[in-house]
Amino acid sequence: MAACGAEEIGCEAPVAATTEATACEPKYVKNKTVSGKKMKTKKMKAKNAADCWTRCTQNEACKYVTWVSKSKNKKLRNVCTFFKSKTKLKKKKGVIVGMCQ
User: Fold this and answer.
1) pLDDT at residue number 3
2) The whole model's pTM is what?
3) CA separation for the pair 35, 20 (Å, rounded)
4) Can you say how many angstroms the Cα of residue 35 is from the centroid of all Cα atoms in its chain?
5) Which of 78, 76, 71, 62 is closest to 93 using CA atoms?
6) Helices (H), ranges, 12-96
7) CA distances from 9 to 37, 74, 76, 95 (A)
8) How far is the CA of 37 from the CAs of 11, 29, 59, 85, 91, in angstroms?
9) With the C-alpha atoms ordered 55, 57, 61, 65, is the resulting torsion angle positive or negative?
10) Residue 99 in contact with residue 26, Cβ under 8 Å?
11) Radius of gyration of the chain (CA)
């Protein structure tokens, strides 16, 4: 059926794909960080990496998260950062990366 227009009486909007296709099983990698394109969102605190991933999945553009579990700087502890894409994973103590498996 053609796209809905003002002149058409009986038309249907395209059906959106189900969210099951985009849902994925999260994978967590310890002592790594993401090098890539960050999302323009405010950094936020979370209790764990799984909490970060849950927040990430609420935004379609979010593909990767980093969560700082240990840091000498108290302001950086428990902070989530969201990424649109990654160029590579780098070693970084105290940081956990979350991504689709």
Assistant:
1) 52
2) 0.74
3) 28
4) 14
5) 71
6) 49-56
7) 45, 61, 57, 56
8) 40, 18, 15, 5, 17
9) positive
10) yes
11) 19
Instruction: Give alpha helix (H) positions in 10-94.
Output: 49-56
Nearest residue to 101 via CA among 25, 47, 33: 25
Q: In terms of Cα–Cα distance, which of 66, 61, 51 is closest to 98?
A: 66
Q: Tell me the Ramachandran region of residue 31: left when phi exceeds 0, alpha when psi lies from -120 to 50, beta otherwise.
A: left
Dist. CA 37–CA 86, nearest whole Å: 6
pLDDT > 90: percent of the chain: 69
pLDDT tens sequence across 34-58: 999 999 988 899 999 999 999 999 9
CA 61, 35, 94, 27 dihedral sign is: positive
Q: Name 68's bridge partners.
A: 95
